[in-house]
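Let us work through a complete example step by step.
Step 1: write down the sequence.
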Amino acid sequence: MNTVRETVRALRAEAVDTDERRLLVLHGDKADCYKEARSAIESVDFSGAIATVSDRDVVGDRIDFDRTERLLGTTYDCLLVDCHDTCRPNAIGRVTGAVDGGGLLVLLCPHFSAWKTTHGRFDETLAPPPFSVAEVGSRFKRRLIDTLRAHRGVAIVDIDTGVRTKRGLTDPPTRRPAAPLVPPERHAFPEAVYEACRSGDQLDAVYACERLIDDETAVVLEADRGRGKSSAAGFAAAALAARGSKVVVTAPSYRNAAELFERAAEVLRTLDALTDDGRDGQTKPFLRTPTGEIRFRTPVEAAEDSPDVLFVDEAAALPVRQLEALSAAVPSVCFATTVRGYEGAGRGFDVRFRDELETSRAVVDCVLAEPIRYAAADPIEVWVFHALLLDSTPPANQLVEGSIPEDASYERLAQDSLAADENLLREAFGLLVNAHYRTQPDDLARLLDAPDVAIRALLVDGHPVSVALLAREGGLDDDTRRRAYEGGRIRGNLIPDLLTSQLRDPEAGIPIGFRVVRIATHHAVRAAGFGSRLLDEIEAEFSEIGSTDADPYDARDRFGPIDYLGVSYGATPKLCSFWTANGYRTVHLSATRNDTSGEHSAVMLRPISEGGRDLTDRHAAWFHRRILDVLAGVLSDVDPDVVRAALASVEVDTDPELTDFEWRLVASSAGGPGRYDTAPGPFRRLALCALVDGILDDPDAERLLVVKALQNRSWEETAATRGFVSTRSCMRAIGDAFRPIVDRYGTKVARTEADRYRPD
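Step 2: predict the structure and record it as C-alpha cells.
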C-alpha cells in the first residue's frame, strides 16, 4: 500500500529535519497492519535501532509488553507498539519516551470503530472477581483515539480502506542551529565534564552540583523525563569521585540509576581516571578512581559506607522518612526527581519533603526543562502528556486557599462524568498524582474503566480539594473463597485475600467492602480536616444505603449496600493516627516492609453493617491475641508511635488475667523489690491492655512500654533509644509507668501490695 510507505517517508523526513518525532497510527485488520508496517519501515533508511512491542514479530527486535521497563533510558529510531491484543497505558508511555529525535513511533491497533469496545489482556486486569471483563469500560480508548485525531504530528491511516484520514505533517519553519555550550567562567569540575553536557539546562545542573563539595549542602534536580537529569547527576558524581570523594548512589532499584552510572563511567574514561569498574557480589555496581569511588547501594544500605556525597535518583519514589534519614546521615546530598514521567510523578516531593530539607541544609534548586532526546517543540511529547495526563495538576492554590470543609460539597464522580469533563478529570487525577509517586498511566485507565472503582470527592466551587479512589472487594463465591483459602490469590481483592489466606478466615470473602486505595487532599488546605470530612461522607453514604429504613437504592452508582470500609497503607505514626481518628480499627500489621513505602503495611477496617462488624470484631480480636508474639519478633523494629496508634484503634475487651503472684510482682516494681526480669509476661500483658484501652496520659511512658515490654528490647537498647542516662534510670521509669496500670486493672491483692511502697 503506497499510502503507508509514502506517509512513513514523509514523517521520517520531517522528523529528521526538525529533530522532533512523528507518530503514525495504522488501524484495521491485524495481519494487514503488520504487513503494511513491515513493508513501509523496511523501505526507509532508519540509521538507529528498530523494535516492536508486541507478542509477535513484526519488524526489528521484539519486546514483550511485560518487559517495556527495559525501554527506560534507551533510545530508538523507530518503535512500533502493537495494541491489537492489549492496550496498556504504561507501555504506550514508555515506548513513546524511548523514541529519539528524528524518530518515528508507530501505533498498530484494531479499526477505531471496533477498538473502542474490544477487550484485551490489560482489560482483564481491570476486572477482579466477581466482575467480568465484559464490564470494563472503553473510556480510556476513546480518549486515546480523540487525542490522536486532535494532535499535531500524528498521521492516521485506515488499513481496511487504504485511506489516510490525517496527514501528520506540521510543515514547521527551518530549524535554527543550537548555540554552543560554554562552561561557567569559573568552575571547580574539569572542563571535560561540561563538554559532555548536551543542553544548557544540563550544564547548569552540573554546575549546581559543584556546591556538593561543601558539607551540609543539598542539590535538588527536577525534570520531566528525557531532560538529562540522571546524566547530569552522573557527570557530577564522576567529577566528585575524580577529586577523591567517596560517592554513593541510591535509587528504588539499580535500573533507575543505570544511566547515571553509564554517564559517570564515560566521563571518568574521558578524564583517564577510571581504574576499575564492576560489581561487588554480582549486585552492587562500582566505579573506582585513583583517589575516590562511586558505588550503588540500596536505600537501606546507602548510609552504611559513610559517603562524602550521596546521589538519590528518582528520589520522589522513596518514602519521606527514608529521605529524611538519608539526608541526616551524609555530609552532602543530591536529590534527582522526575516531575512528570511514565512510571509516576514526583511533584509531591516538594510538598512532603522540601520543608524538612530546608531546615537542615542549604538547598540549591535546578530545574531542567529543555529536552535532550528531541527538540523542545516536539508534538509527540505534547500528545503523550495530554493522552496519559502526565501533565495533570491539582487546582491552582488560589482557587482553594482558605477553604474549610464546610465550604465543600460531597460529590460522586461517575466515570462517564469524569471522562466528559477534561478539567475535572485533570484536577482530580492531579491530586492523586501529587499524593502518591506511583500513580501511573495505568491508573488513569483504571480510574476511567475499572468496574470495581468508585470515586468520591469534596469540591469547592467545582474544583476538587479532596479525592478518594475506592475499590470494591469481597462478595466472592464459594469456589473463589476456597481457592484463596488453599493458597491461591484473589486478584484485586487485597483485604479479603489477606484475611482469607494469611489470617485463615474462610468466611472473610463473603462481606462486601470498599477499600480506600488512595485519598488525596490539596496541599493548600492539608491538615484542615478535608480528608476526615470526605471519609465521614463516604461512611454516611453507604450507611444510608445499607439501612433497612432507607429508600431502595436509586442507581446513583452501580454499587449496592456494603459491609465495611477498609484501607491498607505503609504505616507511619501520622497515617496511623489519621486512620484511627477516623474510626478505622487495626486488624493486621505486615511482618515485612512494603517495597514501595519502605514501611510495614497496616490493614484497618471500619464496619458499616452487622456483617462488617462481625468481620471487624473477630479480626481485631485475632490481631489482639497474636500481636504480643509478633511485636517481640518480626515487628520489634517498628516505630513505637505506629504501635501505639495501631493498638489504640483495636477496640476489644481487655483482661490481663494475672495470678496473685503476678500481681504482687508487678505492683512491687514501682519503689519496691519487684523486678521486671523476674517474669516479663505479666508486664507485657498489662502493657498491652493499657495501650489498647489508652489509659495513660503520658506518650513517653507509652513509648517506653512499647519498646521494652512489647518489643522485648534489651535494657541497654531501651535506655539508648528512649534517651535515659542509664539502664537503672530506665528500670525505675518502667516501674513508674506501671503504677497507673496497677491502679486501673489491679485486684485487691495488687492494690494492697502497691500501697506498701507508696510515699506517705
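Step 3: interpret the result. Residues 585 and 650 are 5 Å apart (CA to CA).
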